[in-house]
Amino acid sequence: MDDTSHKPLVVKGVRQCGKTSSVMDFALRHFKNVIYLDFREHPDYKKFFTPNLEVDAIIMRITAAMPSIEVEEGETCFVFDEIQDCPRARGSLKYFHLDGRYEVMCTGSLLGVNGYMTPEEKKEDEEASIPVGFEEIVDMYPMDFEEWLWANGINKLHFDYLKKCLESESPVEEALHDRFRELLNQYVVVGGMPEVVTTFLETKQIGKVLSVQRRIVDEYKSDMMKYAAKTDKSRIRECFESIPAQLAREYKKFSYTVVRSNGRGVTMQEVCSG
Asked: Does the global pTM surpass 0.70?
């Protein structure tokens, strides 16, 4: 953050992969004042960016609605959560960058996903200006196996040992090999969603892990059904629910006949790839 030329940060990735937690943790540790706006939970926050995107005007509207917050130059970070729900907020990133007095960090779960908007949101998005060249976009993913090992207390000493074995093409000691194999088997079941990982580490109960996994999947399905055109809803759900069967096939190329017996790419490819 010492580089004054850096741009507002936009962290995009699937829901529940830890975007908001990571951004807020960083902001709270590095800034005296953090102003958090969640456009999914509070759609009314969109009004802070109308009728214009002048930084001082935006701050005036926010502080009028939230009189308890403090805004200080060089000491304040704005966090825009689910920014895809407020295109004008994303458009304001250009002006925050040019202004330079405040930091802005954003998260977005559906950025780059075609067809997620309602007709009203699509119209709003078309009228807003995407700040090309004035934002830094990074992708966040669920935890990979190495991060899973970190979460389970595997430290640098162990990683250095594994690297040495790999480079020298020598076998890993049996006790360590058995432990890493156990962790890999657990990772295959638990996956890398932070809340699921935390649930497993705290409880060691697969039943509770499955409960959290099911809830996350249900939230994904809810998003699909909320934004899709009525004629596409059933096909999108079928495509999504076919994923386990697709992955179980010897050949991993997506097959529309797995989605339904008479499935054809000409009728289903658009919704499955969108």
From this structure: yes
